[in-house]
Amino acid sequence: MHRFRIEVTKFTLVGAANFALTLMVFTMMLKVFSVNYLLSLVAAWVVGMIFSYVLNFSWVFKPEQTIQFKARFLRFFLASAISIALNLLVLNYIVKQTDFDPFYVQIGLIPLVVVFNFSTAKYWSLRPSV
């Protein structure tokens, strides 16, 4: 249980750092370079996903000694894509059904997204090879 708590704590710290990084990339592309907001979001998501993969691989879960960008990265990318797709679908559904402020709906969804992302990383995409 101790190792699990350490992993959860590290995963949360990586998530917080990832949030700051993606917000910075998104803001810089949108406000400084005047890139379309959708392209800015996609670019920020890609940068954040690679950042998260590297830190989760090398610091949180450590499935191997050296980082690999092969099948494990593809699984991590797929899990991240599913996560953001489900997040977008649920966010859009709740906002349209309730007319709640999307900001607060997203805040409420964050714990579910974190649990999904942690579970897919720990038990599927970044689990140690057997």
From TrEMBL:
Every GtrA/DPMS transmembrane domain range: 10-124
Residues that span the membrane, as ranges: 12-33, 39-61, 73-91, 103-124
Record key words, sorted: Membrane, Transmembrane, Transmembrane helix
Gene Ontology biological process terms in this record: polysaccharide biosynthetic process
InterPro entries: GtrA_CellWall_Glycosyl, GtrA_DPMS_TM
Membrane topology label: Multi-pass membrane protein
One term under GO cellular component: plasma membrane
Location of this chain's protein in the cell: Membrane
Family membership noted in the UniProt record: Belongs to the GtrA family.
PANTHER family listed in its UniProt record: PROPHAGE BACTOPRENOL-LINKED GLUCOSE TRANSLOCASE HOMOLOG
Record-given protein name: GtrA family protein
Lineage: Bacteria, Pseudomonadati, Pseudomonadota, Betaproteobacteria, Burkholderiales
